[in-house]
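Problem 12. The chain below contains 206 residues. Write out its predicted structure in token notation.
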Amino acid sequence: MTKLVICDCDEVLLHMVRHFGVWLRERHDIEFDMAGGDFARALKRADGSFVEREAMWALLDGFFPAEMERQTLVPGAAEALATLSAEAEIVILTNLGDHCRDARIAQLARFGISHRVVTNQGGKGDPVARLLAETGASVAVFVDDLAVHHESVARHAPQVHRLHMVSEPELAPHIPPAPHAHARIDDWAAALPWIIARLAHGPAEA
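Solution.
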């Protein structure tokens, strides 16, 4: 009986925004304020103007993959995945361009995380549904920091248990629980028993 854990990377396994903010300040004289919880108004130039959405995506393209070595491991993440790997197949579903896949695999391997990596752009509901069909998993858990992806998975694969996790402590207090997630847990020590229990429970109720 195949069980599946589908896990995001940035702000779930690896810290990203704190290091992205340092890089923005160092290289571009841009301040990144995480307190708003809204990327559209989080990046501010020295003259006080906000960075436009198109420019923000260009900055993210500058961070990935060239600056990925700045990222650090979320406490307990590697140990939790090691424990879960005895219970289930693990797939890292990360919203990066396909050209970043090899860099992400190497980055995770440096932290002792060596699982299948799937890159994606856009909502994660479709790729989660495809992974379920491919693996024939009888039960699956999805872990992600963004509410939009929980909504997408709820729509395309409602039988999947959905855990909302924001592992950046400076960001988490400003992010409300995702309405389409089954639970919100922001640290791996507490998340691990919840995930194990869901894997033992069977599919979520649609």
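Discussion. The beta strands are 3-7, 14-15, 30-32, 43-45, 72-73, 89-94, 116-119, 139-144, 161-164, 183-184. Students who got a different answer should revisit the alignment rule from Section 12.3.
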